[in-house]
Design goal:
The protein has about 180 residues and is mostly helical. Helices cover about 40% and strands about 10% of the residues. The protein is built from six helices and five strands; from the N terminus they run H-H-H-H-E-E-E-E-E-H-H. The protein has a three-stranded antiparallel β-sheet with strand order 1-2-5, with no helix packed on it. Strands 3-4 form a two-stranded antiparallel ribbon. A hairpin with a 5-residue loop joins strand 3 and strand 4. Helix 3 runs antiparallel to helix 5 and helix 3 crosses helix 6. It starts with a helix and ends with a helix. The relative contact order is 0.19.
């Protein structure tokens, strides 16, 4: 189901949202524009435009990104287990292990994010937790997948964003000759 103006109005009126709803390309662009200065913008960019899942984003390591080849290889995810313990797991499905190509804009966003993370390491000093993860908290600890989903309202859920990739691709295919 697509978030039309009528569906958004109904959600605001009743508080009930569909189990799965995708953003239109315009809604996705608006969302990304509004959060462009957020410290985890790169993560939300990957959710929205590259279709990665929450756990995949949380489990992403710098060694999974090939800046020269402009690719990202998904081989694992992080899941939160009992008492908040994080566990490395395989992707949700067999098809989840994949390589995703990047455009130069996404590479720029990831390079900027890496620079920002290096500055955070300096600011954190001895409190920094040396990790291999691309998306961490301000102290270098891996992101808990569920905390990555709590950015904005109305109704931001990475699953909505991930499914929006299909809407964006279908729209682009219809628009191309």
């Amino acid at each position: 189901m697509v978030w039309t103006d009528a569906r958004v109005a109904e959600w605001l009126r009743t508080g009930q949202r569909p189990a799965v709803a995708v953003w239109t390309p315009a809604q996705t662009a608006t969302f990304l524009a509004r959060i462009s200065d957020h410290r985890l913008y790169a993560l939300y960019h990957l959710y929205a435009l590259r279709g990665i899942r929450r756990g995949e984003g949380a489990g992403l390591r710098w060694c999974d990104i090939d800046f020269t080849a402009r690719t990202l290889t998904i081989t694992r995810q992080l899941q939160q287990r009992e008492r908040g313990r994080l566990e490395v797991c395989p992707p949700k499905t067999a098809a989840g292990e994949r390589t995703i190509a990047f455009d130069s804009g996404t590479i720029h966003i990831l390079v900027t994010h890496r620079s920002q993370q290096r500055l955070e390491k300096i600011v954190a000093g001895e409190l920094w937790n040396e990790s291999e993860y691309v998306f961490t908290d301000r102290y270098g600890r891996p992101r808990v997948p569920t905390t990555s989903a709590t950015l904005s309202r109305p109704s931001f859920a990475p699953a909505d964003c991930r499914l929006s990739v299909c809407t964006i691709c279908a729209t682009e295919q219809q628009a191309s000759p």
